[in-house]
Design brief:
It is a single chain. This protein is mainly alpha-helical. It has a domain at 39-99 and 128-231. It is 46% helix and 6% strand. It has seven helices and five strands, in the order αβααββααααββ. The chain has helices spanning 7-15, 41-58, 68-94, 132-144, 147-156, 162-183, 188-199, and strands spanning 24-26, 106-107, 117-120, 208-210, 216-218. A hairpin with a 5-residue loop joins β4 and β5 (216-218). α2 (41-58) crosses α3 and α5 (147-156) packs across α6.
């Protein structure tokens, strides 16, 4: 598809890629009805608390036994993955930069699974068929240094280091790319061209490496292993601590 775009057509095609790509569009300049909410401090606190409860239950522990920063990091990874997944899908499918301000995104306080979100329909307007290099530049300046930096700033207040938060974001980029190519093998070439370009740009530069066998490996850890009793939980496949 080439521009001009309609929000409905783009959201439908993106959502077909899987649960992390599901998105709704609401008219720009309007406020969607509850339970849609902006990403406020109370909503973020509720999301972190839900993740803390989930991690505690999985490890047979009380929520107080799970460090708050661990729950905040894991919550951040899930929220960042939602924004990243939509943006990468739009970029790969249409050469479109989907980077609304975080204040314009609306979320629902759902427990478990990808957080529902809705974007203003004006976010889906833009120049189409940008080159991979131009797309990477635009995504770096408008997405990573836009809503994803705002999200990182908010979660950093839970005592999560920036090193971890940008590592989470890099992991979300790689995870989204994996899901896109699995759902649409015909998009593999475009995805594999764009992702390295994006990962080598700030603020993701130096957050990951490519192993000798071609695998993605982040240079940090999301801390989820620390939620298990004794801090001896399983490590993620792309974790810096994995060997």
């Amino acid at each position: 598809m080439t521009g001009p775009f309609t929000a409905g057509a783009v959201t439908e095609e993106i959502a077909a890629l899987g649960p992390f790509f599901a998105v709704q569009a609401h008219p720009s300049g309007t406020e969607p009805s509850p339970p849609w909410q902006p990403m406020s401090r109370p909503l973020l606190e509720a999301r972190v608390a839900d993740v803390r409860d989930w991690l505690a239950a999985a490890g047979g522990r009380s929520p107080d036994a799970v460090e708050l920063r661990v729950a905040a990091s894991v919550a951040h990874l899930g929220l960042a993955a939602r924004l990243v997944s939509l943006a990468l899908a739009a970029a790969v499918l249409h050469g479109l930069v989907l980077a609304p301000a975080l204040a314009d995104v609306r979320w629902q306080p759902a427990t478990g699974g990808p957080a529902p979100l809705s974007l203003p329909d004006g976010a889906f307007a833009g120049e189409s068929a940008l080159s991979p290099t131009r797309l990477a530049d635009e995504l770096s300046s408008r997405l990573l240094d836009g809503p994803l930096r705002e999200l990182a700033d908010a979660v950093a207040e839970f005592s999560v280091s920036r090193h971890i938060l940008w590592g989470n974001t890099a992991s979300a980029v790689n995870g989204a790319a994996t899901m896109i190519t699995a759902a649409r093998p015909d998009l593999t070439a475009r995805t594999r061209t764009l992702i390295p370009l994006l990962l080598e740009r700030p603020p993701l530069r130096d957050t990951s490496v490519t192993t000798p066998d071609g695998a993605f490996r982040r240079r940090s850890c999301c801390l989820i292993y620390r939620a298990a009793p004794g801090g001896e939980g399983a490590l993620c496949g792309d974790c810096a601590l994995s060997r």
